[in-house]
Amino acid sequence: MDWEYLEKHQYTELYKLWNRLTSGSYFPQAVKRAAIPKKGGGQRYLGVPTILDRIAQEVVRTHLERIVEPLFHQSSFGYRPGRSGHQAVQQACNNTMNHDFAIDLDIKGFFDNIDHELMMKAVKHYCLDKWVLMYVERWLKAGIFHSDGTVYSHRAGNTSGRSIQSVVSQYLFACGI
Fold first, then answer.
1. What is the pLDDT of residue 168?
2. CA separation (Å) from 30 to 19, 21, 139, 152?
3. Which stretches of the chain score pLDDT less than 70?
4. Sequence-ordered alpha helix ranges (H) in the chain
């Protein structure tokens, strides 16, 4: 399904999606694996969900965001609504005026290796809504569709890109979990 098809059939398709989501019968498809070239060579792999999966994930993301957004530290900027990289740089500049040191860190492979059980435990800690937990778990188990036609499941990591796994793990990382 592409955006043009969805636009022409939006009432039918969105009603079917809503019906499946509210009844608990919605099961996401595996995400498509796409390779993006890195500046320094090599490739970065992204997971691209279907259009309907993206819409369903946006519903869950919006719900989770209302719960976890108030818990974030004021100096946290990544993946938050109404906050930008420019604001993060400004905050860093302000912080440097008050301190004579800086800490720069990068947790290499954090999103590639996050444990699904730990992620679900953290989601359950902040959100008790069974429908959210059910769908996050289904997205984690949906797997990755490779170009050769095979679908691989994974127990850890997430499919970087605009997937719920990516959004949830980024929120959990920002919360210090």
1. 63
2. 20, 17, 8, 9
3. 102, 104-112, 154-177
4. 3-8, 10-23, 51-68, 85-96, 110-113, 116-126, 130-141, 164-174
**Cβ pair 169, 78 in contact under 8 A:** no
Q: Which of 111, 94, 110 is nearest to 102 (CA)?
A: 94
Angle at 70 between CA 68 and CA 76, to 5 degrees: 85
> 130-141 vs 51-68: helix axis angle to the nearest 10?
130
Is 79 exposed, middle or buried (CB count within 10 Å of its CB: 0-12, 13-18, 19+)? middle
Report the C-alpha gap between 122 and 99 in whole angstroms: 33
Here the tokens at position 117 are: 């059980």
Question: How far is 6 from 28, CA to CA, in rounded Å?
Answer: 17
Q: What is the b/e burial string over 123-135, where b = at least 16 CB atoms within 10 angstroms of the residue's CB? A: beebbeeeebeeb
What is the structure's pLDDT at 7? 94
Dist CA 154 CA 143 (whole Å): 6
The predicted-structure confidence for 34-73, as pLDDT tens digits, reads as follows 888 988 888 887 888 899 999 999 899 889 888 888 888 8
Give the single-character DSSP code of 30: P
